[in-house]
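Changelog note: in this version the structure field was regenerated for every chain. One regenerated record is shown below for reference.
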Amino acid sequence: MKIVVASDPSNLPKLVGAAKSLSPEVIEAVSTDRVSIPVDKLVIADLTLNDCWTSALSEREFDLMLLPSTRDFKEIGARVAARKGISYLSDVQELELGDQLVVSRMVFSGRGIEKLKAPLPAVITIELDAFEPISEGGGPSSVEELKVDCSPRINLLERREREAEVDLSKAEIIVSVGRGLKKKEDLEMIRELASLLGAEIACTRPISADFKWLPEERHVGMTGVRVKPRIYLALGISGQIQHVVGFRDAETVISVNTDPDAPISEVSDYFVVADLYEVVPKLIEEIRNKRGS
């Protein structure tokens, strides 16, 4: 069996780790630069656009192609599979190979796992964190320089990473607010509480996307940031699954909500039925009193 892995150099060790778990006869890597990884062939090409990646990968022969589960490579993988008329699976976390390919991936926003079977050849994208990287064992046995004739209709003018004011994924304590917060000006008391706790502020999607009270990088949830703090203090948050999936790895969840039947009570270690406008000022006062400030 021949497996082709393709990505920029930083992702190749984990892709190779996933490929070697299936014990193929041949592993070929396609990337944009030279990298020391134990594969039979490394193909290097100047690939900057999705159209160019799609053209280059569609020319390769393989039984299985592994790509990272990033936004761009999900698009590229689907295009390659469509051009070749073969199976395509995304967001794979486990791989098995018998008479056919068997894969597992998360469903229901992380609350379930589904197992799928597909014939080879196939293209799949994998969740990189689910696989161990392999970079030891020497470099590639051979290297091929590939020239890709790519003339896309749309040309990339500029791509740059937006500077974020905070990285919530590294926060130890997070104070998060939802629609229980009545107006933007009330964020001041949330900021004061967060400052006293040494916490970062986060929010649900309506607070950042609809009201624009906080920037998008503070949105925790399925379409936002995934966090795993020691303490997640949820204020005025109902607990819809789209938000809960973003903090499900938190060690301790404390929530405050006026609705005793709010869904967030089911995922909280401590659930306080109260108005955040009563709780937050008292918390601030109590912390200040204990500190003598």
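Spot check on this record: The chain is about 25% helix and 25% strand. The two ends are 69 Å apart (CA to CA).
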